[in-house]
UniProtKB/TrEMBL annotation:
Membrane topology category: Multi-pass membrane protein
Chief location category: membrane
Gene Ontology process terms (BP): proton transmembrane transport
Naturally occurring in which organism (per UniProt): Pontiella sulfatireligans
Membrane-spanning residues: 30-48, 91-111, 157-176, 196-214, 249-265, 272-296, 302-327, 339-358, 370-396
Protein name: K(+)/H(+) antiporter NhaP2
Amino acid sequence: MYENLAILGAFVFLYSIVSGGLERTPINGAVVFAAFGLIMGPIWLDLLKVDVNAEEMRTLAELTLALVLFTDAANANLGILKRSSQIPVRLLLIGLPLTIVLGFGAGMLMFPELTWLEVAIIATMLAPTDAALGKAVVTNKSVPGNIREGLNVESGLNDGICVPILFIFLALIPPVTGTAEGNTEALALKLVGEQIGIGLAVGLGLTFLAGHIVKMAARHGWITESWRQLPVLALAFTCYAVTQLLGGSGFIACFTGGLLAGALAKRHKTEYLLAAEGTGDTLAIITWVCFGAVVIGKSIGLYSWSILLYSILSLTVIRMLPVFLVLTGLKLRIDQKLFMGWFGPRGLASIVFAVIVLNKHLPHAETITMTAVCTILLSVIGHGLSANPLVALLAARLKRAEPETA
């Protein structure tokens, strides 16, 4: 334990003092974290002996994602979002279902040995985008505000929307005993209603209550400087835990709660969010290091050509074509549509879904999870290395186009 702690502590320290410089290079943080875990893990140097089982990996990824969703939503510019709300609405209500359908069609061709339900599970697992991996894009002021906020809201809500869809497909798979589990249609509607409805109610309700309590405490001078950083962190985890306990989607609760928290805090939100963002970054480092050491290390050599090809398609055509189509008619250039289509990275949400599926012991669970792992790995590399160069390219093209549109 102490050896692991020493290695992780030294790595976090070194990365934190050079993070600003690395952010200006094509190297994304997740690439560094996963590579570090892979190199230090059992496959290569075997210095980092991480003994993390599937359930622990899921918990770590869930808590990281919940906190990132809350803080990213709180930082959202609601003014820009209100003016360009058509983008996330189209991406979520039309683009997301199209992505799942297109992923299902490609999966039926690529994985003939899988049942249609197993293919649908793969398509759903890889449909949501990752808020943490997309942070380099959605926080970069060089990217137009409508694109930043559109991608931010999409990544914040699509994983929560995919949770009930995933559970519906899992519920449709006949149990090993062969016994029926009641009315499937009724179960599906119940899952959707609970996941989304409870998530919205808890996220907005708890945040509204907490926000007014914090304001009252601040007026009376009850919050000391050292404790000012903790309310947001505690609120994010409380929203997630209470929602999950009640059977809803904690991810939807965290994102909607974060949006409301940012609106309530207004100009003071930066000081309240600082510690929560730092904690989220630290959890993200640990998650990706564990992913590199444990998951990637154990999965190397288990990929097939069909898994690799599907992973590439998932990150390109399956994602980019629906995005391009649903954005038709909006005042966006072709390069902006392609930019939004490409920046749909897969990460923490897909890790969580993969662990859920793995615990269900499906007949082809290994193929399903390996497809998710391969897609996430390619996304970490591809989106990590391309973020800054493509942002710079888009900014340059938009700047050149300004005299033409003036």
